[in-house]
Design a protein that fits this description.
Layout: E1 2-7, H1 26-43, E2 47-51, H2 62-74, E3 79-86, E4 95-99, H3 104-119, E5 124-129, H4 134-137, E6 142-150, H5 154-177, E7 194-197, E8 203-207, E9 216-221, E10 225-227, E11 230-234, E12 237-245, E13 248-253, E14 257-259
Helix pairs in contact: 1-5, 3-5
């Protein structure tokens, strides 16, 4: 497996850091953690590239997006992981892992990583489906954002410092590669799974498998409302699993669909 491992945030041209900071600085911590995670993946026979936005290059935070997305989407990666820390005025604590809504693989990997962090003593805040973060919504491979702990919570930061980078890195890799429980379907979110086809003057093909070369089994007209049973993200893009006929399922490209508000 080839992993894209991103350090969230950056240092802008003016010297300001876009990350949160408390007892620990989010960006600096994850910049130090990333090589440990990479080395652990490599020890277990996988490829892992650490992606850090060039420091003092971009004037605004949107430069981070412009730098990272092309690498993630053109690098033939199997998994995207971005490292972050949470913050909430010192009141929040624990770990949560974010995934793309409906992505079965992403949901199960998020569950596993959260569980591994819990073994280290962090509160398991669980998984969170997020459809508004570009590192999850605009990356072709399955993507996760790990909010390891709260950088403004003293207890969380003390625990992280006591554990050291190696143990935290092991937890991430164990979760990403292991299986702590039987895979299950992600929870369904009301209003999230209906989309509208967007193919003006054309039809949208339903494929037998989630790729553009698979056999066409059906088609939808422009502006057809369809229900999404599952989201599949792979090297060819994001696909929606749909029921095109009673008991018969296929896949349509999310590229040619739009959300319904």
């Amino acid at each position: 497996m080839r992993i894209f491992l991103s350090v969230g945030h950056s240092i802008l041209a003016g010297g300001g850091c876009t990350s949160a900071s408390g007892f620990i600085n989010e960006y600096q911590y994850n910049k130090a953690l990333a090589p440990y995670v990479r080395n652990e993946f490599i020890k277990r026979g996988h490829q892992c590239d650490v992606i850090i936005v060039p420091e003092r290059k971009y004037r605004v935070w949107s430069g981070e997006r412009a730098y990272k997305l092309p690498i993630a989407n053109l690098g033939k990666y199997d998994l995207v992981i971005e490292l972050h820390l949470n913050a909430s005025n010192g009141n929040g604590f624990g770990t949560e892992v974010l995934y793309y809504p409906g992505d079965r693989r992403g949901y199960n990997l998020a569950r596993q990583i959260s569980s591994e962090y819990a073994k280290l003593g962090f509160r398991n805040r669980g998984t969170k489906a997020r459809g508004n973060l570009y590192m999850i919504t605009e990356t072709k491979p399955t993507a996760l954002i790990i909010e390891g702990f709260f950088c403004d919570n003293r207890a969380d930061c003390n625990r992280a410092n006591q554990l050291g980078y190696s143990k935290v890195a092991n937890a991430i890799v164990n979760g990403a590669l292991g299986s702590t429980s039987k895979p299950v379907a992600p929870p369904k979110f009301e209003g999230r799974y209906f989309v509208m086809t967007s193919t003006p003057g054309d039809t949208l093909n339903v494929r037998e498998q989630a790729n553009a070369t698979s056999r066409v089994v059906s088609a939808y007209n422009h502006n057809s409302k369809i229900y999404v049973h599952e989201v599949v993200k792979n090297g060819t893009g994001t696909w929606y699993k749909i029921e095109y006929h009673k008991g018969k399922f296929g896949y349509v490209s999310a590229r040619y669909c739009k959300g319904i508000k």
